[in-house]
Amino acid sequence: MALEMLPAWMAGLESEDLAFIRRFVLASGSLKEVAGEYGVSYPTVRLRLDRLIQKIRLSEQEQADPYVGLVKRLALEEKLDLDTAKVLIAAYKQARSTPEGGT
């Protein structure tokens, strides 16, 4: 499939995420089997899957509001702490709702 034909949610994933999805599908969705292949515990694989699900959902939000999506993605990837992300999003939403020139 040509890169330009990839869905937006898939194009935004890292190669590690795509490799995980491939293993998950080849394991018929068995988290236990994927955990064995990676040599990690079931809860570790479950956490990775949950984060991947969040990344996919965020890609849809980024299309609606790129700034909020970016801040959430940075927090999800632990490049920004959660409290800071919340402050940035709240300030952004406040600034957008305040008429220009108002305080």
Summarize the structure.
72% of the residues lie in helices and 0% in strands.
Can you offer a commentary on this structure?
With 103 residues, this protein is mostly helical. The chain has two domains: 15-60; 65-103. It is built from six helices and no strands. Helix 3 (31-38) packs across helix 4, helix 4 runs antiparallel to helix 5 and helix 5 (66-76) runs antiparallel to helix 6 (82-97). The chain starts with 7 loop residues before the first helix and ends in a 6-residue tail after the last helix. The mean pLDDT is 85.
Outline the fold blueprint.
Elements lengths: L7 H4 L3 H12 L4 H8 L3 H23 L1 H11 L5 H16 L6
What share of residues is helical? over 70%
What sort of overall outline do the alpha carbons produce when their principal axes are compared?
elongated
- The number of helical elements comes to 6
Number of strands: 0
Number of domains: 2
* Structure classification: mainly alpha
Q: What labels describe this entry?
A:
103 residues, mainly alpha, 2 domains
